[in-house]
Amino acid sequence: MRFNAFYFKLFFVYLFMPRCKVCNIKFETKYFLQKTCLNENCILTYSKQLKLKEWEKQSKKQNNKPKVKKKTVKEYLQTDINKLARLIDGHFNYKCIDCGKTMKVVHGAHFKNVGGNENLRYNLHNIHSSRAYCNMYSSEHKKGYVEGIKKRYGNDYFDLLENGLKSKYIFLGLKKNEIKEALKQVRICIRQFNSLILGCEDGREAREMFNNKIGIYK
After folding, report:
1. Which of 11, 161, 168, 201 is the most interior residue, by most CB within 10 Å?
2. Closest CA to 112 of 126, 130, 131, 123
3. Whole-model pTM?
């Protein structure tokens, strides 16, 4: 009985021994969470398998990440034109064109929406600084914009924005090389802003001067 119990115990131990993840041979564990036998080749092979799995996991995560869409030349041009408009208004210490409050987050807000007025999207006269809230959420945005323009520059300038620009620049039709050249000029204007703005009496005059330098609206 003792003999049978001894072999039964050995069989029981063998039955629950783990199998090597590489050679599939049962082995006696020497340390916690041991996955392979102590054969050196098995240990190295399993280590490589783990590294490969981790690499595949990381690669899958990278591939599943949403790809960031690169900006087009037109989008870069719009971004820099808006920046130039904000620089102009900042130079003259203008407040929000909509509500007249101090601006923390500043947007370059279009007087005529870009959607229906593609021909005016890059015209600095059509872009004035406003608070982000006014530009994005305020129900009084359009009304405040009109009142702000009249108060700052007068009715004649309002008429220019409301009717004059659209009738003067009916179609833009810029070619890719013209957009690239305009972008180049805008960036020169931004770099040399502090010297170029000297002599301009207000935002209207500065916008006219910079429009001419950029060359889209001569």
Report:
1. 161
2. 126
3. 0.69
